[in-house]
């Protein structure tokens, strides 16, 4: 089988109605598949005003707003009309991108129809309960995820560190890698703009510590704020620049120093300019499976201080392109940021190293790795292979 023989049915709970790294990666994948001659159809909730234009044809699936997080929608399953469309399309592989109701129904349908099915892993859902006071639920969530992923022929992690976690959690017997790429035209040191810095109130010699991403508690906003408090107690000079929007913005604004700068949501060239115009990225999140913003900051020539967790540990080389700090070690986070605030030479050296390291993450190359995975799974199924959970 060749790539031109592929007919991929992609199931996503959020393909383009909210902008985040996961759905942007899925849209890039669809674009790459289509350029290679593959056929793709996407099954996802649709909204009147999506965050960005979708790549490929999207078939709407019924959904409801997610309680407490109305910007997201919960797909309700695969009704008869959508099943008929699937049969007409004639998919030879199903790809599910999230373990909600739509994903479960898609896996069940694929198994009933005898089609291979793969899953891509985009976030560490089992870590979310701890940010909302329900840490005791983590084992149950992990068991739920294990049941979902084990019903797939294979799963794909965005980093080797995340793949190792999935193996240790016994999520699948076949764990591959579909990493993420970076657009080196959008994210480059050349987009650094001193006039833009001045326009938001940054002095030319004032170190800017960036937070980039959706403002939700699971991104480690509490750790970020506590670390900045520790720096202030020791007199370290530096300004916080928050690039992004989200439901926790009001909490974050109250929790950070009064001179923190909130740029709001930025996209494409504006996002590239905002990142390159800062001086370092602080990413304390432990929920990432890859860390798109970490790679984008590296491509922009910024050192990265990050939690030593899945995703970041596959990108950041400790002491070379930035610092990897044990999650929860807020004093160590503060010391690392203090170094880059006070030592421009160390900051510049780490930024150059990060830029060099980012050059190996070309989008076409990483998407071809997943295409190769599709073809391998289909060949295995044609040779009589089955998901291990079904064969037992």
From TrEMBL:
One of its GO terms (molecular function) is glycosyltransferase activity. Pfam families: Glyco_trans_1_4, Glyco_transf_4. The keyword Ligase does not apply. It comes from the Bacteria. Gene3D superfamilies: Glycogen Phosphorylase B. Keywords: Glycosyltransferase, Transferase. Residues 20-185 form the Glycosyltransferase subfamily 4-like N-terminal domain. InterPro entries: Glyco_trans_4-like_N (IPR028098), Glycosyltransferase_grp1 (IPR050194). It is an enzyme of class 2 (transferase). Its EC number is 2.4.-.-. The keyword 4Fe-4S does not apply. This is Glycosyltransferase family 1 protein. It comes from Sphingomonas natans.
């Amino acid at each position: 089988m060749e790539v031109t023989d592929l007919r991929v049915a992609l199931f996503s709970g959020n393909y383009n109605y909210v902008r985040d790294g996961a759905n942007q990666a899925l849209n890039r994948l669809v674009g790459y598949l289509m350029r290679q001659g593959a056929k793709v159809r996407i099954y996802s909730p649709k909204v009147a005003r999506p965050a960005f234009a979708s790549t490929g044809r999207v078939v709407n699936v019924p959904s409801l707003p997610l309680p407490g997080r109305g910007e997201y929608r919960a797909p309700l399953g695969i009704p008869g009309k959508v099943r008929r469309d699937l049969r007409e399309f004639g998919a030879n592989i199903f790809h599910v991108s999230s373990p909600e109701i739509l994903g479960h129904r898609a896996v069940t349908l694929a198994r009933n129809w005898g089609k291979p099915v793969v899953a891509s892993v985009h976030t560490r859902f089992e870590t979310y309960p701890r940010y909302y006071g329900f840490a005791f639920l983590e084992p149950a969530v992990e068991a739920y995820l294990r049941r979902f992923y084990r019903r797939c022929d294979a799963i794909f992690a965005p980093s080797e560190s995340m793949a190792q976690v999935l193996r240790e959690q016994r999520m699948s017997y076949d764990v591959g890698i579909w990493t993420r790429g970076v657009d080196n035209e959008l994210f480059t040191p050349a987009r650094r703009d001193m006039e833009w810095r001045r326009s938001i109130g940054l002095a030319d010699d004032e170190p800017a510590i960036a937070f980039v991403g959706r403002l939700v508690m699971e991104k480690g906003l509490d750790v970020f704020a506590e670390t900045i408090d520790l720096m202030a107690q020791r007199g370290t000079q530096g300004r916080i620049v928050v690039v992004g929007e989200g439901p926790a913005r009001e909490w974050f604004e109250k929790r950070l120093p009064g001179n923190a700068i909130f740029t709001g949501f930025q996209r494409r060239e504006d996002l590239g300019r905002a990142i390159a115009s800062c001086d370092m990225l602080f990413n304390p999140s432990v929920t990432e499976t890859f860390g798109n913003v970490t790679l984008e900051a590296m491509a922009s020539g910024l050192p990265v201080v990050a939690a030593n967790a899945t995703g970041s540990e596959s990108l950041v080389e400790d002491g070379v392109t930035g610092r990897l700090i044990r999650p929860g070690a807020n004093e160590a986070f503060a010391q690392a940021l203090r170094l880059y605030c006070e030592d421009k030479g160390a900051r510049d050296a780490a930024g150059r190293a990060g830029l060099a390291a980012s050059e190996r993450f070309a989008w076409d190359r990483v998407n071809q790795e997943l295409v190769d995975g599709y073809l391998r799974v289909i060949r295995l199924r044609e040779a009589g292979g089955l998901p291990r959970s079904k064969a037992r």
